Amino acid sequence: MSTQRVAGFLLVSAAALAGCGSDTQPASPPSVSSPAPVSSPSPSPSPSSSSVAPPPSSGVAHPDGPLVAAQGTDLKSCRDGDCEVILKPKDKIAFEARLRVTYIAVDSVSDDGVTLSAALPSGARASFSGSAGRTNGISYTVSAVKEGKAVVKFTPEA
């Protein structure tokens, strides 16, 4: 092949590739650049991850001074389901029928909370332990314990 033919072939090929005779611009070659840094979201710690803090303690205080409650030891003030009292084992609190709990008895008091038994209007009984819980229309939270007694706040459920 002659040099002219090769040069002509190359010129025609280049013109065809460049879109000669068309109104559109030739596609620009892909630019080579370094990829933008991709930030991935921080992984959520899994329960088995060592970065997870241990579960919180019961949240029950152990005061140096005497236990203090809004209604003291007046268990009758709890009838409407809204009170804060000091309880000890064998205490029994009666509630209004609308709360669907006949009474709650204190079985025991520990450093972590209380163990309570509830008598329900149906005749059924329920037992629950810890620093917080609920049964039918009553919820409770233990805020402090000392010497076998506990400060417990009862709240009626809506």
What is the topological layout?
Layout: H1 3-17, E1 83-87, E2 92-94, E3 103-110, E4 113-119, E5 125-130, E6 132-135, E7 138-146, E8 149-156
Question: Outline, from the CA principal axes?
Answer: globular
Which strand order spans the largest sheet, edge to edge or round the barrel?
1-8-7-6
Structure class: mainly beta
**Radius of gyration using CA atoms only:** 38 Å
Tell me the major beta sheet.
Answer: 4 strands, antiparallel
Average of the residue pLDDT scores: 76
Unreliable sequence segments? 1-56
What is the percent of helical residues? under 10%
Number of strands: 8
Task: State the helix count.
Answer: 1
| Percent of residues in β-strands | 25-35%
Q: How far do the termini sit from each other?
A: 98 Å
> Element order, helices and strands?
HEEEEEEEE
Describe the protein in words.
The protein is mostly beta strands. Helix content is 9%, strand content 32%. Strand 2 (92-94) and strand 3 form a beta hairpin. Mean pLDDT is 76; it is low at 1-56.
Q: Which features characterize this protein?
A:
single chain; mainly beta; four-stranded antiparallel beta sheet; 1 helix; 32% strand; disordered N terminus
Short characterization:
This protein has one helix at 3-17; strands at 83-87, 92-94, 103-110, 113-119, 125-130, 132-135, 138-146, 149-156. By secondary structure, the protein is mainly beta.
